[in-house]
Amino acid sequence: MFDVVVVGGGPAGATAATELARAGRSVLLLDRAGRIKPCGGAIPPALLREFDIPLELLVARATSARMVAPSAKSVDMPVGDGFVGMVNRDEFDEWLRQRATAAGAERRTGAFQKLERQPDGTVLVRFHCRDAGDQAVRARAVVGADGANSKVGRQCIPGAADMPFVAAYHEIVRSPPAAGFDGSRCDVYYQGQVSPDFYGWIFPHGETTSVGVGSAQKGFSQRHAVSLLRESAGLGGCETVRREGAPIPMEPLRRWDDGHNVVVAGDAAGVVAPASGEGIYYAMASARFVADAVDRFLATGNASALKGARREFMRNHGKVFWVLGIMQRFWYSSDKRRERFVSICEDRDVQQLTWDAYMNKRLQRRKPLAHVRIFFKDLGHLLGIVPP
Description:
By secondary structure, the protein is α/β, with parallel strands linked by helices. The protein has helices spanning 11-22, 45-50, 89-102, 151-156, 222-232, 280-300, 307-331, 335-344, 348-360, 368-383; strands spanning 2-7, 27-31, 42-43, 60-62, 64-68, 74-78, 84-86, 106-109, 111-117, 123-129, 133-144, 165-174, 185-189, 200-205, 208-215, 240-249, 262-264.
C-alpha cells in the first residue's frame, strides 16, 4: 500500500515523486526500462534555478540560435549574457529518478497495464515486470506521467484520447570536428520541405548532435526531412548513434484529474509549449503543481483538491501557451508566412523580449515601448507592407 504511485519516470514523473517523497508521502515510482524520449534537450536557466539542477548535467551551452527561412535566409539571435543548457535525456532523466529515490521514493521497473478502483476508494495498480511477471500494488492516489499516449490518462481522464499532437522524430549523430560546425548554436529550420506545419532543428550536445523534425501531417516523411537537414548542415556523413520517434502534445488537456484520486502531469497533461515544442521545463513545473495538489488531497480526502494542479499551472503559464498557440497556427501555415516570421526575428526588440521570456519563463511586461514597436512591425508584416 502506497500513498501515491507515479506512473512514468521522465522529468514530470520523477519530479512529482521527489516532491511527494519530500512531503513525507510513501511513493512508488514505476518506469519502463530503456526508454529515451526524442527531444532537443534544451533547458532554460529558470529550470536550473527552480529545480536545483547541477551544471554538471549540461553537455553543452548554446549561446545563440539561428533561424532559417524557406529561402535559406538565416537570422542569428544571440542569447546575450546567458546561455541555454543542453542535456542528454538518458542521463538527465536518470539523475532525476535517482534524486527521487534519494528523497525516499521506492523505484520499480515495469510496464503499466491498468488501474482497478477498489471498494475502499483506493486504486489497484497493475503492471508487468520482465523478471517478476505481473505485479499489483494499492495506492491512495495515482499520478499519470506516462507520456502523450498515456495509458493512465486514456483510462481515467476525459478527453485524453483526443489530445492533439505532432509526431517528432530525430537522429542522434556524432558531432563533426569543430571546424565548420558551431557547437554553441541551435539551428531552427522554418521550411515547408522540412516540416509543413512545425519546424526542424539541429541542436548540439557536445560529442553528439540532435537532428530532428516535427509534424502533424499524415504521410509526411520525417526521415527524409531529417536527411535533408543533415545534408544541409554537413552532417550527412556523421555516424548515426540512434533514431527515436514519439508524439508530442500541443495543447493542455481541459481536465487533468478524474474527480476521484487520479491526476496526470507532463506530456500526459499536454503541457508542451506550442510553436517552440519546449516540454522539459513545463513537464517539471506541472509535476510540482500536481504533487502539491495530491498532497492536499491526501491530507483532506477532498478530491476537488486535484483540480488545483491544472488551475495553478494555467494561472502561471496559460498566457504563454495561448500566445504561442496563435503564433504556431498563423506563422507556420505557409512558407510565405514562415519567411516573414524569420524576418521579424531580425528585430532586436523581438530578440531581447523572446530570450527574456524563454530564459525566465514569463511573458515580459517591461519595456512597453518595445512591445509597441513590435506590435506595429508585426502589423506591417501581416498586411504585407514590410518586405520579407
